[in-house]
């Protein structure tokens, strides 16, 4: 049986401050991810009934029994999920990434759509139009647009959901993951994905070693090391044996911790994270392995860190909802005023006019009440239902433009950009904060050996070396000549150290890419690591094979910042080789060591070039000295308490009086274009935060490499913030940990202080953060700054952050697809983020804002004509236009030109958008669409409606036609007003268009032509004969529009409507121009003339040593478990060694 404790283990025994300890964190709990899922009772309350198994009593609330699915369905493992219904608390392994199914699609989609105020309003309006006493318009004028809106949106949502489902379920079906349950024993094959969180029982490698690739978990392509327990390796090799023990565990979201105990045959065996293979990883270099499913589906650690799928809405969406509320309030007030007018008019005029008698005995107040609802129907187009359909069409088109953009296509991996959502495009033009992962997002996670200094000399055709790596790019022929001459002993010693002082066990793929780069460098310079056993290591020194006896391996950890190996040479000499950060090596150098100053100067140069450095040194040890030290080392290695601290003290005693050989410089390769992209985004006033699991030194080094940090910046570290918190903390009589908040109020105040302090900085790098903490940082900025955020990452550890941000971007490539599957947008390289934001995001925002401003204007201009007409028809809710014109106005007559503006318009082209990043600023400030713009559109619409109504009204008041007849009838007036409005709104959008194409010109002319074509058809006698009650304007258009006087009226109306707009645009572009291109060009020239910043000379920066940030596998190598043959009860069997062996591992599962 396995039991697990969720308490943090104390970091006791460390010699100094531990950068793995976090001041406070919510990471132990996953309440935000799955509230209530883990809480079966109150804290400290009674646990579920204890389970008896193999004579043991267990008090845990989570138990698993191998190969026994019925065990998981026992009553004590049931939990309530709906009223009194219960189900097993053990999750199945099927993961649902889709939102709908066949039964829930229609009700759930309609429920989501009717959350939009406009849709709900038009549903109520449709119900009102069915009431004969109220309606003044046919019911189909509302039903047709409403059904069209709901149908198009539903189809779009369904397509998006099918795409989302197909991107994941295909994987499940091929692997049959959905059929796996907790307690199953599974056999995994080489290169297979791990389907659940599995306890490793045994593998085909010696001593149940198993190599896993965690790319989809943490974005790292290097391999990690897992190992089965000795008891499961030696005694549970047959399938019938695998079912003879049980397991007990409790699910949580800690990727870096697992503490448990396995009980088998009355014995207890400890378990830790090295025994667990997590979902999202992949089996490598292991033919097959067996494991027991501990967590499945939603209970797996990767899913617990994934966060909830959030319904994301843009700021413009939220603003549109508020504006619809505002329009609705205006509508109510206008209708109430007109209803009151109707009551007064009927009291004073209508009741006394015999020809208005309708035979109904209704009071003036009741008639005013009915008039109110009549005007609600007549003026309903103030709340534009077609607005939402048009917005969805525009967003769909903008998403397709992103998908089709060849400049965001990554040819090397045949990966195009992909807009995985169609609802967030304009939000890309309003980003204020970008939160980026580091490994695999900013960097390639590829280390390259760039420079070295040997014995004071700062230094490759490899045809002379048969072991050379063809991909190695270091070129310095003088160094090659020095090595091949074999005269410079210090140079030979330098590369001998690199080939011997490491923990790589075979070949040249290590868990740390830094270590792999160093060993590969030694290989290419003729010192080739060939093999190792528990006690020996064999290398080829310039084609001469040499074997050295390994006496001790002094492991690396984040406090020591170095590693050493003690070897006995074939001639009997004992030598210690050491490599580590200069900050710790220089303290341990012998006073007689040479080249210290020259090497220090070279290290400064390397650091300024943002390279990761290591110092190499050695020490000759006498046999007597080693024997005395070996005894102390043995005593420390078996100490029962504080063993690590005891070993560190013993290591200190031997690692002194070292002799300097030189130093290496490794480049952590950035992706192409990262510095330029960050610089451009910074000029656009977009603040970039890097959230990484790496240690501080590595993260800072990358910050300088990608130019996120610059030389003229003042760097503040986390210790400064801790000190600030401690200073702000009030004095307390009770001593307690000052890093921990006292209560929720203090915790919130610290969060506010942190956000305020961090947001004052130009750049922020958060180190050693877990996936949950990444999401928490994003949430804090969203909560306290109300800013639009974007998260970008490449691994499954970034999923929660991607889901939390307003926009989530996934980097697709070798690091896996988990981030992409949870993202809103995906592409292959970080540099494409510049084009996504500065081009597509900016264009989408400008287009959407222009579309909305115009759309509100044209609807106000159209609707408010009814309002002015009410003053001349006794406030009787009589419409000013023909019914079919009202129905088709937003659908046919004025929709196409504004749609094309929303899809195609550009104020400047893509090159200028990227050249002048300051053009992005209006979107961040929301300057192009806000309440100010809304009320400008409202007043513009009021003015246009006044002109459209009163000029034709004045022209019709006392006129005589050319044929002696007066065209002063209501129907002719309606045709003239409608024609004036169509010309006005279509020419208005022409004035608003910045980027003219043939399609735009055709759309404007086509809209006007469609209006006249349809109008003449529905005013014809033929259609009136077929539908006499529906088409009542028989012959009106041909009769009215043959009068030149009425054409002059239309021209006058259109001219007066457009004149103020033309005048204002002239003033804005000539007298009050916004920041024009000339200004931006002047700024660019000033930037070019700025002097280069002073080059830094900070010794502290060189502490970006080329190691991962936790201890390595020296204990594993020294024990020989990865090398010895496996002994079985039935005999002895030779097992081939795996291809890869890792070095520095540590907290890799939460790294980045």
Automatic annotation (TrEMBL):
Main localization category: membrane
Membrane topology label: Multi-pass membrane protein
Listed Pfam families: Cation_ATPase, PhoLip_ATPase_C, PhoLip_ATPase_N
Keyword Cell cycle: no
Residues binding ATP: 437-439, 515, 556, 579, 612, 692-694, 768, 774, 797-798
Active site (UniProt): 437
InterPro entries per UniProt: ATPase_P-typ_cyto_dom_N, ATPase_P-typ_P_site, ATPase_P-typ_TM_dom_sf, ATPase_P-typ_transduc_dom_A_sf, HAD-like_sf, HAD_sf, P-type_ATPase_IV, P-type_ATPase_N
The P-type ATPase N-terminal domain, residue ranges: 79-143
Ranges annotated as spanning the membrane: 137-155, 322-346, 366-391, 851-872, 884-904, 934-958, 970-989, 1001-1027, 1047-1068
Cytoplasm found in the keyword field: no
Cofactor(s) demanded: Mg(2+)
Protein's GO biological process: Golgi organization; phospholipid translocation
Enzymatic reactions: a 1,2-diacyl-sn-glycero-3-phospho-L-serine(out) + ATP + H2O = a 1,2-diacyl-sn-glycero-3-phospho-L-serine(in) + ADP + phosphate + H(+); ATP + H2O + phospholipidSide 1 = ADP + phosphate + phospholipidSide 2; a 1,2-diacyl-sn-glycero-3-phosphocholine(out) + ATP + H2O = a 1,2-diacyl-sn-glycero-3-phosphocholine(in) + ADP + phosphate + H(+)
Family recorded in the similarity comment: Belongs to the cation transport ATPase (P-type) (TC 3.A.3) family. Type IV subfamily.
PANTHER family to which the protein is assigned, alphabetical: PHOSPHOLIPID-TRANSPORTING ATPASE IC, PROBABLE PHOSPHOLIPID-TRANSPORTING ATPASE
Protein name, per record: Phospholipid-transporting ATPase
Protein's gene: ATP8B1
